[in-house]
UniProtKB/TrEMBL annotation, chains A, B:
Family designation: Belongs to the alpha-IPM synthase/homocitrate synthase family.
Protein name: Citramalate synthase
GO function terms (MF aspect): (R)-citramalate synthase activity; 2-isopropylmalate synthase activity
InterPro entries, A to Z: 2-isopropylmalate_synth_dimer, AIPM/Hcit_synth_CS, Aldolase_TIM, Citramal_synthase, LeuA/HCS_post-cat, LeuA_allosteric_dom_sf, PYR_CT
PROSITE patterns: AIPM_HOMOCIT_SYNTH_1, PYR_CT
Amino acid sequence: MKKITIYDTTLRDGAQAEELNLTTEDKIRIAHKLDELGIHYIEAGWPGSNPTDKKFFDEIKKHTFEFARLTAFGSTHLAKKTPAQDANLNALLAAETSVITIFGKSWDLHATTALGIPLERNLELISNSIDYLCQRVDEVIFDAEHFFDGYKNNPEYALKALKAAYQAGASRLILCDTNGGTLTHEVAATISAVRKALPNASLGIHAHNDSEMAVANSIEAVRLGACQVQGTINGYGERCGNANLCSVIPNLELKMGLETIGQGNLERLTSTSHYISEIANLRPFMRQPFVGASAFAHKGGIHVSAILKDAKTYEHIIPETVGNEQRVLLSDQAGKSNILFKARELGYELGKNDPTVDLLLRELKQKESMGYEYSVADASFELVLLEALGTPLNYFRFQNFFVVDAKREEDAEPFTEATVIVDVKGQVEHTAATGMGPVNALDRALRKGLERFYPKLSEVKLLDFKVRVLSGAVRDTGGTASFVRVLIETGDKHERWTTMGVSHNIIEASWQAVVDSVNYKLFKDDLRDTL
Amino acid sequence: MKKITIYDTTLRDGAQAEELNLTTEDKIRIAHKLDELGIHYIEAGWPGSNPTDKKFFDEIKKHTFEFARLTAFGSTHLAKKTPAQDANLNALLAAETSVITIFGKSWDLHATTALGIPLERNLELISNSIDYLCQRVDEVIFDAEHFFDGYKNNPEYALKALKAAYQAGASRLILCDTNGGTLTHEVAATISAVRKALPNASLGIHAHNDSEMAVANSIEAVRLGACQVQGTINGYGERCGNANLCSVIPNLELKMGLETIGQGNLERLTSTSHYISEIANLRPFMRQPFVGASAFAHKGGIHVSAILKDAKTYEHIIPETVGNEQRVLLSDQAGKSNILFKARELGYELGKNDPTVDLLLRELKQKESMGYEYSVADASFELVLLEALGTPLNYFRFQNFFVVDAKREEDAEPFTEATVIVDVKGQVEHTAATGMGPVNALDRALRKGLERFYPKLSEVKLLDFKVRVLSGAVRDTGGTASFVRVLIETGDKHERWTTMGVSHNIIEASWQAVVDSVNYKLFKDDLRDTL
């Protein structure tokens, strides 16, 4: 089976994304995760460019990797220096990686305008830099920057740039669509031309997504003979991002029968994607192919009914091969099938003609029109289900809360205090707590009131807190009076669960989500005790 | 110039997206917007499938469109009915659109498994339905569902399905990659085969993005002879979405020299994309090609320095052709060029060696590491700039605020009241206000205190309020004690501006953003008065 190497530049090119901001610790964790995934090359940064990158390379020397080869990235030497004098090349060597990747100009416009040097001199920079480095490290890869635009405008010059790198000893020539403007058939034609001109060279592709073709271009390049694909996890990168490895890898493995990270590792793809988006502090894109939460999520009644007969009818691959899963959604487009499926998933067998199903469907559509979205808050849905089944929970009854935020100084955070009054099986508890914000204070006050009766609540930890302003209401009532939806993710030693609240008032919305979360925990504990 | 028609299914296929939930009013507004954009066909829904869609078609009869042709979508008639008896076909005719689009099974598996009928009968359903409708409306389009998978598995049968539709009078045969699993070169080969088998048929492409190739597949299909592309705005749709028309259209117009909506309308693309994401209540995807906020945003120092010489060096098209714009970002990767550019954009000429620039760069990097993101809050940045230039604002001085949320009943929202004490040029104002939530109450109380001195504050309207929990801190302190970033968008009759606040406490973060917003307004009013 033909093997394609995967070269990840999440830590370098990916980090140039507008919304990305990684610390050294973040990068180290990501590097190890990529190593576990079976990535062949990890381009970890540009040591000559800024102190953060340099610090990273100093740190990473203390770490070992099972499989991946770390690479340091940098530019050809400055025109007015020799390689030995060049600070950038020296920084690359000081990084002590076994592989160095050098990028050089292959578009004549860039040499003359961006660098302001003669075309011949640019070729020398490429040869000199690569020759110098080849004598000092195991492997030097050449990134032909702007190759496709360069080839369109001055094909002879672009090929000269490649040849200069090849003859100087570069192990691989990576053709970069740096501006991301190249169409798929143009990539195919260009790669064919390069293969004719340099039949023995090992080629790679580095695509950008400005025309929304980076993945297709990468696949097409491999089909035409490239044996390395460069990209990033989740397609992060400057402007529209790099080729998304989370799409490239499964396309190569599952549809083209090529070996990249291996099918065992492929099952880690979804969890790797999530892990990295979490470290990056970026909301995952639900519609992301292969690994996105919606990638195998079915909403329309007809689709649901068909996939329940044969998943192949509406799924192009088996979700588990990439570590994802099929989901059936509840929505106002839901039919009875969706409710039955969801209830069964939660452990409740309902008959198709059970009046509860109609009741639930009506309740669901009505709440969804107010902004509730049960497809993302399973635990809240389960509580609605219990109430519809005539078995509402009764662990405590709300009486009163009172939250105060008082700010007395210009540069201090407010002092926040909450008091809560709840009736727990006839006993009234009145508690108070401070907090780092109003929701934190309420949560702590409530738990204080309940822990005496339900000690297991102390195991509970709030893991995540998401707020979304439902701008449907913005147009009606103005910015700060919109509907707000709060999602809280909670966990204990058994599981994690998500609950939701919706209100004009962010405190009220958070309170609903906190109450649902506590009720869910108590309900599950009871279930566990009876088993 | 060859013309390619654009067929938009945002209101039908797009609406099957997990996160999408459109009301009838939403759909009407979107339909008019698409008409203004120059879209040729608007597939507005499936009248036979649910009451919401049917209601929409009843409503839309009262509206006229300048340019677009509305289409109603539905399935072939039920096997056990005749066309005249079929409820779905009758609902289609009752919608009274001039165009009807019928989808039929072209993959044998779907006929036998999903529908449970013999293969010959499926072909009859296609012929009968189309023949019946062709006699009653101007135009009938045939969507060959799952065509590419169907062709892979049983090419003769797939072609028979097309022929049945063609002979029955379908104006166009749309080849659908319904599961989204087809690779670009496979699309090319299949379309070529179809063109050989049916040389006089007018073909279209309807791609899904499950392999992240929908746009590339659409472009390739056009290159091989398709003359209609079906897709959605922003790529909305079930699972991974449909082909993104915001990428398809500029690729066809600007890179392939084909006419779609016309270059005048092309300039409306970005605003149309935003308008529709706002109606859909979905956060726009920043990295979206062509129209995304980051599509022409440059962060790295080297890129910024090059594009300031010639934008072509890092931009594949001129942003204004699609109604977008170039942006230079401030970040910890910013160099002096970014600061100078940003300051100049705001009207301040700073010298390269002005010590303010270094001061600002340091301030910026420090604040960004805490979670501030000035790239999205220009007005807050301008206030930081003013302070660095030694001209801080002095419209009012904070002394105290106090916010209370008191909930006394199970199903009621809390009563919220804020008091604010500010010193306005030596005069102390102590005001109180209620609100629909704590931030709304604070905002109202503050403005009450200031409006006596600055009457123009009454022109100000809060337009949007965004909250983001910076989950970097979640791992350290737990869910409800994370850092929160609040962005407020404000507007008056002159402009709109965005301000920001960051804190553990959501009230404090909101307060910072509100204060910046008020200060910015007062500052701009002063500037206008002096001009």
